[in-house]
Amino acid sequence: xxxxxxxxxxxxxxxxxxxxxxxxxxxxxxxxxxxxxxxxxxxxxxxxxxxxxxxxxxxxxxxxxxxxxxxxxxxxxxxxxxxxxxxxxxxxxxxxxxxxxxxxxxxxxxxxxxxxxxxxxxxxxxxxxxxxxxxxxxxxxxxxxxxxxxxxxxxxxxxxxxxxxxxxxxxxxxxxxxxxxxxxxxxxxxxxxxxxxxxxxxxxxxxxxxxxxxxxxxxxxxxxxxxxxxxxxxxxxxxxxxxxxxxxxxxxxxxxxxxxxxxxxxxxxxxxxxxxxxxxxxxxxxxxxxxxxxxxxxxxxxxxxxxxxxxxxxxxxxxxxxxxxxxxxxxxxxxxxxxxxxxxxxxxxxxxxxxxxxxxxxxxxxxxxxxxxxxxxxxxxxxxxx
Amino acid sequence: xxxxxxxxxxxxxxxxxxxxxxxxxxxxxxxxxxxxxxxxxxxxxxxxxxxxxxxxxxxxxxxxxxxxxxxxxxxxxxxxxxxxxxxxxxxxxxxxxxxxxxxxxxxxxxxxxxxxxxxxxxxxxxxxx
Lengths: 386, 129
Description:
Chain A is of the alpha/beta class. Chain A folds into two domains: about 5-120 and about 215-235, Thiolase/Chalcone synthase (Peroxisomal Thiolase, Chain A, domain 1, 3-Layer(aba) Sandwich), CATH 3.40.47; about 130-210 and about 240-385, Thiolase/Chalcone synthase (Peroxisomal Thiolase, Chain A, domain 1, 3-Layer(aba) Sandwich). Chain A is built from 14 helices and eleven strands. Chain A has helices spanning about 20-35, 55, 65-70, 90-100, 120-130, 145-160, 165-180, 190-195, 225-230, 260-275, 290-300, 310-315, 330-335, 340-355; strands spanning about 5-10, 45-50, 80-85, 110-115, 200-205, 205, 215-225, 235-245, 280-285, 365-375, 380-385. Chain A has a nine-stranded mixed sheet, with helices on both faces. The two termini of chain A are about 20 Å apart. Chain B has one domain (about 5-130). Chain B is built from two helices and eight strands, in the order ααββββββββ. In chain B, the strands form two sheets. Chain B has a five-stranded antiparallel sheet with strand order 6-5-4-7-8. Chain B is globular. Chain B starts with a helix and ends with a strand. The interface of A and B includes residues 126, 155 and 203 of A. Strand 5 of chain A pairs antiparallel with strand 4 (about 50-60) of chain B, so a sheet runs across the interface.
């Protein structure tokens, strides 16, 4: 396998983008990534686009060709493929792109992700997202997506004594980071009081425990490390890209509060990269809900089970802490355009490792991403380094 | 949900009928037609669960999708059945009553109604035992 580098990144501003269409969002991100890599679209060998549910959100399927067409990439008739694993769709696109470059099949590949979620009403969005879990045996008895994560929170709090305030601190910390990120959907700080007084969604989770509905796109460009300096002075190495699956339903898991797929993907990634959690300088985890960040920190090995609440309360996951988590603001504050999230996480780590993260800058040489589909049925972990 | 899609699993939903692998002894609800442990060596037969179990974890759903909106707030739970199988279901009790470990038993109930003229979907919920 060849060594692979990321040589270009592009992320649109995240938010409710009433004026921008699905296809234009992606084209904007793709153009930014090409510009960043000083590259022409003609040099692209293949494209993978992560997208969860354009079929529900904009009534459009056949995303690979559509995006390639509007990105001006059909002249060479390159292969263009949509990848889907609910909220891990972007992570899948990155891993597919990585695999084809590492194997020698391709030289230059674009991995992107896009979701346009605000063209439908709230109940359609809720229903579409419920498709990330088991529609037939979870959704049809009334389970909502926040409801499933709320059941993880109930179990976790009961077993490990996590407090409501500690859970809120995850959100407070991510908003503090997001306030420093120019592309974040919510560039404002919030307080613990704000979180625990916000609307109840699914007990014990409240509105400000939940990631928002977001429009956005992200793209990164990968090539063999040996070619990377043609395009950039600061190539970032892909040290690992690993994926794992688990049961589709929460009720079939070995342990409600441990995402075994996170543990498996994390271990595979650490083995590929030849590093331990102690060597990771920062991590973008999949905080679709506050409880998800708590579980992720532990399941990736940054602390023992039951200790992530204390770690958060002590400020160790904040900027300047021992393991900064979600410097971008995470899904909570930066926003969660489902298919784009896994790619945005990679772009954030690349920006950090290049020293281009501005007020969010962390001093580190190795960073990690963690992207979850559903309640943990698919997980993709990537490790990147200078 | 389309009528055939619901009708196909009606007996499973009404009677809490799942499956059982005679080779390894595991019980499945939702029903599986392949045992994940024994795979092609397994022998799958229908099995009607007794319906006794306990709450493993729960949430009070305050905001639901359109079909379930009128039912909020309601108790959603992962119920562990006596046979060792877990499933997701509603528990008919007040938000204050539910707790982890609460004994429950199955009950035939209306799940949703598709408007005034559409299909009424029935299935299994749980009540305090």
